[in-house]
Amino acid sequence: MNRKTDMISLPSARPDLAESYLASDPQIVDAIARAQENLLRQQKADGHWCGELLVDSTLCSDFILFMHWCGEVDGQMQQRCIRHILRRQLPDGGWNIYFGGASEINASVKAYFALKLAGISADAPFMQEARANILRLGGIPAMNTFSKLYLALLGQFPWKYLPTIPVEMVLLPSWAPFHIYKMSSWSRAMLIPLAIINHFKPSRVLPGEKQLHELYPLGTENQDLRLPRSERFFTWRNFFLRVDDVFKFLHPLEFRPIRQRALEEAERWMLERIGEGSDGLATVYPAMLNCLIALRALGYPKTHPVYVKAAKDFAGLFIDDPDDFRIQPCLSPVWDTAINMIALGESGLSPEHPALQKAADWLIKKEVRIRGDWAVNNPHPEASGWAFEYNNVYYPDVDDTAMVLMGLRLVRPQDREPLDGLFRRAIDWLLSFQCDDGGWAAFDKNVTTPWLEDMPFADHNAILDPTCSDLTARTLELFGYIGFDRNKRSVRDALQYLIDTQDDDGSWFGRWGVNYIYGTWQVLRGLRAIGQDMTQDWVLRGRDWLESCQNDDGGWGETCVTYDDSTCKGRGESTASQTAWAVMGICACGDLDRPSIQRGLRFLLSSQKSDGSWDEPQITGTGFPRVFYLKYDFYRQNFPLLALATYVNYRNGLGHYPSCYRCDR
Could you tell me which CATH number the domain at 3-41+332-433+468-549+646-651 has? Predict the structure, then answer.
């Protein structure tokens, strides 16, 4: 076999680097080639990629609840959702929210309710097991506010015990202590339609056999369903609960002069964000479903063009698998395309390769030039960012923008000037989002007011958009690749932020990936890219922590339970993506002959499938910690490739591929 000839024929064979790759382990070279070919096979004709986002059963459960609330049940669709739900019931009778997790109360009640609504008898053995499990978990009173609100729509939870979501909040000015832009973008998009729903309270009456009295441990008559107050007299929680009492007293009064104006403004706000340039309200499932309910509550018929578009956008989340119908929480084309570009480019595809050129062209067209919701908290005059989804002009985000730019830097365009202009304005846009503490958050700037977490309707654990180590380090990684001046104050402040947010054991929390392995890898990679001395004690403590949690099989794994219990950090069955992250993190610190790196590489090589991918049933992506998690199907395919390429590049003295764009600052 003429390995040199074969090597040159592979997509990884950049002419200027072919000899370096030949000097590498042939097994790694072969694994890289197969992983590249796997990704290239999945590229869409227009140049982008979009993998599936897999989640728990609650989306199908909520959809059944919605169909029954509308009184428009598609029998075939309901049966497909029921099969989806039943497949995911655990041996103890409940349902979880991540692979391998314990039964969770909200998911379990929703699944049980969906099954009852579909006509399944509560006396069926699996329903009896589900009911017993739900009661062990505390029953309906233990659910969060948003889940109880869905029950209230079907008459299964009293509205009087739900915290009021006052629609008047849309009228509060930006200088007020609280206004809707003090909340995270995703909470805002969920709560505005919920505020409309809260005004109308459009409940449906169910027949007795479909009701949920049996899920109240003490019965609905004998149980205090009010939200508990703090024992101390004054706390923010108690303050908000007293305010809520006032809202409830005012609600039945006919004379509410600003209520109608607030409803009109909330409707206008919602309609504007589901119109042109958006594939639904915030293009995320909860907001889109709430929007459909709010439109119906406002009197929009299902034939109205606005409702038709909203329903079509919602149906775009469906995976029409005949064996297992699924609903995605959103779509991830920009994110998937950017990471795949990086993995392919770093693993040797030429900057002129057609696959990278097509992907770059597609991404460039997705640049968001509209000053969306972020502009309320960030006065930066020129918009230039990328959203996660196909069309979501109101909500570009820092993470996608940084990842896209890291992908575009690996492409050599025929005309440099337009790309140079794009980089300049996008870098300026990113810099404008640096928060007061030196870090970067996802969608907004300085949406970090801590007392908002005590609002009664904020128990979904996502009312804020906090700065986080992983986003901050990714931004620094980008800056390092494009030659940004590392002596700038923005870089110094970000580095100090990373020092301040390191845990005592050396790890970093991962907000957008599971969890400390994700955070620690990204910080170490970012530090190397920006030119930090990787032999500093605080840096090596991060490396040492990663090594301390390597599994006996050479891989790494960590579960979503770490968001509830940090003592479980770094522990879990080995996964391809988390092993890739850990290997890259340790490689960033140098000494590529460390046993931990070699064992990690062997794990990836031995577990690669013949088609170039890896198996990974576990969830390693994070939506809302402790509430909602995501399995990115491409993570098991692109990150192992990037890890293998990173090792080869470092081994050959190449820290990263030279950027086709250099920052002039």
Answer: 1.50.10.20
